[in-house]
Structures are given as C-alpha cells and as structure tokens.
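In the design runs reported in the main text, the only information available to the sequence generator was the tokenized backbone. The following block is the verbatim input for one such run; it is reproduced so that readers can re-run the procedure and compare outputs position by position.
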C-alpha cells in the first residue's frame, strides 16, 4: 500500500512554515509500527507532491491541516481527486474541530476529503489504513475508529476516539523520518509532551480531548534532543518546543530544562529556545526559567488584563496581586521577562487594551508582544455560536508568506482577523494597529525599552511614550511621515472581505509582475526605521519632544539628550551595512549604574564630565555579519525573515 503524507509549506516567499513536518512524522511512525509493508512518503514541498502524484498513484493521501495550509491542502486534495477519483483523501490537524457541527462545516467547506480525523491522529489513521487494506475501499456507512465522514443520508458517521499510547509511539527523529528535512534546512521542533489543562476559546488547544496531560519518556526526549543538535543546520541555533505549559509536569520538566542547559553550556546549542511556560507561577516554572535564563525569556502570557474579556475567552492568568512579586523575583535572578497581549477579544475596548499594555510596561516586564485576534478554525471562538454571541465581524488578510503558484494556479492561505465585536469597531482596530507598530519598535524589539525603563525610574511617564508616538503629527518629519503614512495605508489595504478577494489580489500582482507584500508588517516597517539614519534621527527628535513635554527639569533634559545621542543611537546596529565590532563613545551618563540598574534619580546617572565607554556587537550579531550577506532593505521578505529569527538582544550593541 502506498501512502502520501502531505504536511505542506507555501513557497511563494521562501518556505512557510519552515520547520520540520513533525505531525506527519508521528503518523508515519505509528503506521509503519502497525503495518511493516507500507510505502510511506512525507511531503513538505507542494511542487514535489504534485510531481509524485503525476508519477505514481497512492492508495491514501493524508493532509495535516492548520491555518497556514487549509487552502493549499484542499487544492492538493482536489488535484488528487481529479487525477485519481478512487484515492482516499483524509484530513487531520488543529483545523479539524472536535465538535460535530464544526466537523460538518469543515467537510462541506473542503469537500475533497473523504475522511477527517479529529484530535490526535495516529490511532484513527491506523484504523483507516486497516479498513482500506481489508476492503480496498471505504465501505458505505461503516464506522471507523477515530475517523469521521458523512453517511449516505448526509448525517455524521463518527467512530470512537482513542488516544495514542505515547510510550508505544516511535520517534520521528530517531526513526529517521525527519532527517531529510533537517538536511534541507528546515528548523527543528521537539514535542516532549501532549495536552493543555486550560480551555482558552481562541486557541485550538482549548478542546476537552486535548486537556489530558501525557509525557513522552524523558530518556527518549533527551535522545531526540541529542539527535537534533547533531543534525540541525540552522545558523541561528533555534529550537522550538511544542510544550504549551513547560513546568506543568513539575520535576520532570526541570530535569529536561537542565539537560538542555547542559548542552548550551558545553556545546553552545541551542542558542535560543522558544516555548511557553505554564500559566501559573510555581516553584517548578521558576526553577526552569532560572536554569534556561541565557537562552529563554520567562514568558508569562496574559493576552488581556480586562477581566470581562478574560472571562469571555476562559483565560486563566496569574493573580494580579502576585505580579509585582513575580517581577521582583525575575529581576533579582536577572531573567528576562516577556508577556503577550491580544487585541480583539469580546468585551475588550481600545482604552482597556492600551491601558493593559501601559500597566505591563510600568510594572517592569522587559518585553511585551501585542497581537491582533485571529479566528482559528478548530478553536471555540471560531464557531458560529460565539461569533453571533459577541457580534464578531472579520476580514481577511494574507498570512505570513502563505501563498504560492502550483500548476499555474495561485493558492493563498489567509488569516481571518477580528475587526469589530461587541465593544470595539474597525476604527479602534486601525488605531491599535498604528499603536502596535510603535509598541513593537519601542518595546517588543526593545530598541527603546531601556529608555522607557530609565524614564519610569526617574519619574517621567515612559509608559505613555507609545501613545504619544502613535498620535503625533509627523508633517514636519519628512522621512518618518512617509513611513508612517505608508504603514497606515497598507494596514487598510491588507484587509479583504473574503478569502477569494484576497487570493485574486495576489494573483493580479503576480500577473502584473509586482511583488506580493510580505505578511508581517511590523517587522518590515521596523527595518524601514532602524535601517534608515534619517528616520531614526527624526524618531529620537519626537521622543525628546515627549520628554520635554513631560518634564521641566533641565537636568533630566540633559540626561536623556546625552543618553539618546551618545549611547542609545550608537547601540542600534544597521545590519544593511558593514559594522565595526567595537564602537567608542563619550557620555556624561553613568553606564555602570544603568547596567547594574542602581539609580533612582538624575543625580545617580548624570555626571559633570564625559567619560569614554565602548559598545560591542553581540556574539550572534558578529556571526551574522561573518556568515551572511548584508540585509537588503528593499527586500521585504529578507527583512522580515531577519527580524523574525533575531532575538532582541542580538540587535543592539552591548555596553562595556
């Protein structure tokens, strides 16, 4: 029996997603364990999949479906059915909900799938293989364990769901399924456990069937980690853990963290680890983040600080009163703290959202991410019931690098973005987008977060800086005015009434030889500012105006003028040009007090005479300079990719 597993990436602007197809790897492992004679091929590249379909007829084609591949997978399933009508097509993945009504809607939206497999797919997919091996086809109205399809009368035919036994599930890495993808430069991701005990309605992991926590054997996980370290090709040294609540498994997760830290200390891998920590602060999450502090932020995600919004989406956050103690602990341990916020939840308002972002800055989070709400197929908030309940209205925009041309047909996957609901409207959404860009520049990428922290310690309301920048009239700042206007124009141009309209727009651009705009606008426009000396100069002039408006103290003016001109601007690295590894400067600012965070007034920072100090490129920034060509500031995809893979601390020179 020939089986194709399609976990596809778009190729219109590089590869997206650019990580290994781990989900298909698990399906392949489970299937080969149960049926030794299977001929299984995993596809990430859609062009290779199309070539294979033309050369050889498979018996079953499985598609792993998520927001970045819903339309791409459906297009390929249609291709399969038109070429071989009797080939069985099956879909699984996060986009396949567990709710009957949503499954029916999925099947009718994507009619090229014969079968769908909700939840974890290994058991259901194996039962489907067994069914087809026995009957050489799908038997009408026959129930298959773990699988769902339409019966002859149009009703839903649903088999019993059985979770896979993780102790019996082979490793996609150790069995060699991921080897060709690592060799081809795909980024590694590692799954050490499954499940999430929380029920957030905006997330595909909020389903009841995913709530049970189960862990892979720790020795197996360590062996997988070792395999990844020896075989991954990423220059940046990234590792993504799929764990959604690292620390929830207590001492087991602590041991894993220590193993990863030992590898970093001895082998310099990973250089950065990306994962989510348990929503609760426990002794275990503290231990883990202390262990991993050189390579990981402590991510304490809130998503919203509006209590009505939090309840509407069933979000659980750390107790508000416990946050100051938590932040005091991370600063004492010198652990970098970060959090996330999402605009667009029901009951959220423009004012409450910005107030929440300001509160997080004022209370000392090192970095905050601000996102817009996307409705994800497979999540509870996606359902018609919740859309109607909260009057959620949406528009569509192209996802990050989520398009391509396949057999001369343009296919695009889009993001469905909430642009209004019961407590906010489109005008509020547009305002948040502009605010969010300046927030990203100042705080998220941390170009000016040190400055706002200094303001707050001295008594200047630094948390209000971003509102000032977002509302400023840039008419007399020629370069920055051009950039801000272009950003606002593209925020509105990226929104479409339908998926079809969005796809038609992309096809028109390609037909006319135009570049399709890259998807992550904050990253793109960040480059337009920080890689442009005139724009940076104008931005710092506006920041100084804010300081002068907030303070009448001449010494404070002198302090911030000196810090901005002689320290901060010299820290910002322009990766579009060759850089000296060491830059010298002279300043009246006591940089040692800043580094040690030991000051609370101008008197503790501003000296009478200038002293010399040096600023060094971060080691990873030096490696980027040595190994990669300079960034082409006119290539939006390249700029986006650079900032996407470059942690904030690499982007600025280090004070010594």
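Verbatim output:
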């Amino acid at each position: 029996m020939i089986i194709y597993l399609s976990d596809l990436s778009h190729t219109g602007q590089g590869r997206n997603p650019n990580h290994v197809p781990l989900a298909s790897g698990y399906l392949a492992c489970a299937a080969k364990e149960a049926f030794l004679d299977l001929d299984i091929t995993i596809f990430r590249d859609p062009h290779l999949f199309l070539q294979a379909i033309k050369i050889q007829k498979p018996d079953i084609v499985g598609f792993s479906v998520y927001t970045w591949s819903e339309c791409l997978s459906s297009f390929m399933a249609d291709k399969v059915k038109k070429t071989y009508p009797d080939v069985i097509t099956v879909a699984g993945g996060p986009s396949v909900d567990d709710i009957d009504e949503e499954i029916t809607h999925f099947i009718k939206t994507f009619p090229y799938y014969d079968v769908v497999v909700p939840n974890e797919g290994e058991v259901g997919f194996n039962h489907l293989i067994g069914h087809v091996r026995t009957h050489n086809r799908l038997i009408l109205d026959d129930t298959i364990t773990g699988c769902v399809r339409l019966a002859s009368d149009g009703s839903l035919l649903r088999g019993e769901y059985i979770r896979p036994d993780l102790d019996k599930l082979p490793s996609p890495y150790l069995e060699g399924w991921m080897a060709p993808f690592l060799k081809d430069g795909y980024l590694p991701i590692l799954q050490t456990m499954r499940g999430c005990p929380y029920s957030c309605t905006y997330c595909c992991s909020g389903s009841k069937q995913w709530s049970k926590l189960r862990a892979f054997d720790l020795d197996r996980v360590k062996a997988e980690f070792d395999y990844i370290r020896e075989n991954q090709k990423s220059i940046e040294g990234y590792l993504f853990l799929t764990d959604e609540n690292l620390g929830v498994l207590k001492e087991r997760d602590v041991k894993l963290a220590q193993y990863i830290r030992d590898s970093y200390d001895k082998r310099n891998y990973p250089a950065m680890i990306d994962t989510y920590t348990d929503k609760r602060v426990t002794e275990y999450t503290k231990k883990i983040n202390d262990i991993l502090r050189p390579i990981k932020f402590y991510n304490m995600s809130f998503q919203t600080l509006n209590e009505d919004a939090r309840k509407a989406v069933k979000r659980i956050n750390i107790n508000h009163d416990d946050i100051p103690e938590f932040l005091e602990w991370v600063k004492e341990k010198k652990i970098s703290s970060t959090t996330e916020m999402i605009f667009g939840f029901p009951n959220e308002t423009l004012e409450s959202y910005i107030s929440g972002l300001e509160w997080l800055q004022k209370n000392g989070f090192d970095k905050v991410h601000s996102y817009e709400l996307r409705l994800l197929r497979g999540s509870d908030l996606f359902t018609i019931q919740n859309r109607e309940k909260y009057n959620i209205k949406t528009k569509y925009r192209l996802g990050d690098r989520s398009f391509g041309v396949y057999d001369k047909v343009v296919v695009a996957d889009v993001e469905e973005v909430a642009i209004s609901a019961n407590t906010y409207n489109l005008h509020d959404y547009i305002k948040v987008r502009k605010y969010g860009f300046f927030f990203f520049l100042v705080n998220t990428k941390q170009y000016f977060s040190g400055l706002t922290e200094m303001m707050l310690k001295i008594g200047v309301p630094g948390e209000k800086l971003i509102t000032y920048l977002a509302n400023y009239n840039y008419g007399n700042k020629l370069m920055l005015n051009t950039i801000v206007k272009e950003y606002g124009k593209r925020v509105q141009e990226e929104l479409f009434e339908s998926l079809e309209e969005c796809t038609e727009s992309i096809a028109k651009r390609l037909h006319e030889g135009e570049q399709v705009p890259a998807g992550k606008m904050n990253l793109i426009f960040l480059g337009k500012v920080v890689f442009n000396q005139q724009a940076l100069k104008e931005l710092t002039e506006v920041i100084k105006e804010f300081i002068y408006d907030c303070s009448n103290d001449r010494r404070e003016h002198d302090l911030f003028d000196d810090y901005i001109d002689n320290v901060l601007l010299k820290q910002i690295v322009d990766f579009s040009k060759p850089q000296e590894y060491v830059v010298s400067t002279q300043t009246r600012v006591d940089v040692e007090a800043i580094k040690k965070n030991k000051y609370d007034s101008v008197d503790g920072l501003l000296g009478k005479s200038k002293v010399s100090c040096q600023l060094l490129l971060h080691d990873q920034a030096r490696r980027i300079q040595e190994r990669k060509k300079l960034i082409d500031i006119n290539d939006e995809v390249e700029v986006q990719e650079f900032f996407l893979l470059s942690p904030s601390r690499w982007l600025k020179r280090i004070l010594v």
